[in-house]
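Hi there,

I know you've been waiting on this one. I reran it after we fixed the sequence typo, so this is the corrected version. Both the input and the resulting structure follow.
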Amino acid sequence: MNRSRSRSGSRSRTIGRGLVTVALLTTAASVPAVANSPERSEDPGGPPPAPARSGSPSVVYDRVAHFYGAYIDVANDPGSNAAAAELRKFYLTADLRARLLAWEKQNDADGILRAQHVPSAWKVTPGDSGMGHTYTTVRLTWDSGPGTGGEKTYTYLTVRSDLESRKISDITSKY
């Protein structure tokens, strides 16, 4: 009887050691993944990781965000009219480009931004879709300037894009 207990105890120890080994290997494999995860800072008391940006050319509101980001970058650089025209040609329908030119002549302002100046930031939020179009809200952030207490103001635009071509087909002030 002692002998069967010894065999049974030996099997339990072997199974137990096997389970411990599997657990350790699983833990060892997952520790580097967690340690290298972008959400984790090297120094627990240090700054958070840098923000990441991503997008897809097939997602229409991503294309609106790409356009506004690039357009605002170009608008901040003097003498970049040719680049702005190329962005308009690539991202906007021909009909919208024609309507924007008329709007800009009448209002003496940039029709994309609906302003005479360049915003300090932008934010794009997807909206509803229907009848072959999707709508996106673009929030433009404007700095008040020095001596104003750093207050910011916002302009909201509704941007309509055609789902088939993924091009921007209308821009209007939201409010």
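Quick highlight: Residues 2-6, 11-41 have pLDDT under 50 and may be disordered.

Best,
R. S.
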